[in-house]
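Z., the sequence and structure:
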Amino acid sequence: MYLEDVHIEGFKSFSEKTEMGFEPGISVIIGNNGVGKSNILDAIVWALGENDLGRLRCYTDDELFFSGSKGYPPAERIKVDLSVKENAAKDSPVAHFSREISRNGRHRFRIEGKAVNQDDFRRELEYRHLLHALKTIIRQEEINDILQLHPLKRFSAIQSLLEIDTKADLARCIRNLIAPLFYRYMSYLMPLAEVRMDVISQNGKRGLEVEVTLPGNRIRRAHQLSGGEKAITSLALKLAVFHQLETPFYLLDEVEPSLDYINHKSIQAFLKDVASDKQLIMITHLRTTIELADTLHGVRTRFDGSSFMKFYFVMDKRLLRLYKCC
């Protein structure tokens, strides 16, 4: 299953109806700073039912609406349509979901064009394993949040994220499922490092310790890693945890900027591995990530600052040679 189409109307910086199509694998969104790339990811999670304004990068509901400009009036409604395809086969079934809100606060939810209430909308998303996509968005400023936590709080945060009832069940999940995948991811990102993940006990409470040892260095716990080391360790940990959730895609918003050139290269193998069974929709400025794209989307702004999709194409080597990375 993968996200095939997104239609955005009146949401944040998008003054006109904007359509974008995605393919399985890695879809990359590019553009200069401030053109509205992250608003696309916000629109997707809003359409899936996200109501937390903080997670939508807003303080008030009004900020969800296009506010108006010299060329366009303020939006009176927001509408985001999502099309989710069962698989890549040409005749594969497609499910359609729509969320709409007007400035007076009236909400409308639709499945296959038919109006439904919010509970039924949520149940259908849950049935299709789409609700967990709300948990699998990573923004640049959030990449280290779990790794920065004390081991006891880190364990609790993962338990809450995965909604696992008991600490014993989570400990088994970490040892049998999360840790092996984390080690595999880290073998791409830090091939010379020794990595260890342990469920520990302190004063009767469970914790999760992560340690990394590089050649010639002492053992370093997660919070002692350098900025670049911490970023890639965090990314590997988060995606190993996310893999336990039944979601067809991850949304990644500029998660690579603090990595050095060597790690930019090693992250390619890592992303290919992740994309072997998950769709990645990524915002990036990096050519090494763009090289991996199955589809490429270019976002720009009009003279009045509103966003629009300038180009979209399926990537190939000829097009990549023509593209000049920003």
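Residues 143-244 form one domain. The chain has eight helices and 15 strands.

Let me know what you think.
H.
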